[in-house]
Amino acid sequence: QPSLNSFSASISYEKRVAEGREAARDAAARKKVFILIHGIYGDEDTFDELPSILLRDPAFPDASVYVMKYWSSQLFPNFQPLADLGATFAKHLKVIGKEEGNADLVVVAHSQGGLIARSAILDLKDAGQSDLLDRMTLIMIGTPNFASLYATYNNIVINSVFAPVTYAVSLVTG
């Protein structure tokens, strides 16, 4: 059974281990830790069977997989600032890095997930976390590193619809 590691923020992770493996295995023996981050309209199921495939692959006999979860919707805007998601992810990377010992951390990020990961890496660099960064590999899949025309148009439409509501809420809540 997968064990669930939840954090008290807008981001959480589900840790998955292969059936039959002991969850309390020595962290130093782990070779790879995969951390999967979905995009703006995705969810924890974005990567479909990839966690299971990684856990069954004999090339990664002691692998762990963490699946990042944060709120997203195709109908409603995500008002979580990218910098906040990145800072929260950086905190979780520190926790995972400590929990997993000296394992290599492989972050696989789709779309906005890559922007979150990049933001976290910059935060870790600014904090002098080179020990963690030296063990990390980032794989970006479809990340809009140079902006996205779709996101620009989407933001214009969403902001024109939701800006009055957001403004009214900010007046009420102070």
Write out key terms for the chains shown.
single chain, 174 residues, 6 strands
How would you describe this protein?
With 174 residues, the protein is an alpha/beta fold. The protein has 5 helices and 6 strands. The chain has a 6-stranded mixed beta sheet with strand order 1-2-4-3-5-6, with helices on both faces. α2 crosses α3. The radius of gyration is 18 Å and the shape is globular. The N terminus is likely disordered.
> Count the strands?
6
C-alpha end-to-end distance: 45 Å
| Class inferred from helices and paired strands | alpha/beta
Indicate the percent of residues in helices: 25-40%
Count of discrete alpha- or pi-helical segments spanning 4 or more residues: 5
The profile of the biggest β sheet is: 6 strands, mixed
Spatial shape: globular
Radius of gyration: 18 Å
Helix and strand element order: EEEHEHEHHEH
User: How much strand content do the residues show?
Assistant: 15-25%
Q: pLDDT under 50 segments (min length 5)? A: 1-10, 22-30
Mean pLDDT, all residues: 79
Strand order of the largest sheet: 1-2-4-3-5-6
Briefly summarize what is shown.
The protein has 174 residues and is of the alpha/beta class. The protein has five helices and six strands, in the order βββαβαβααβα. The termini are far apart.
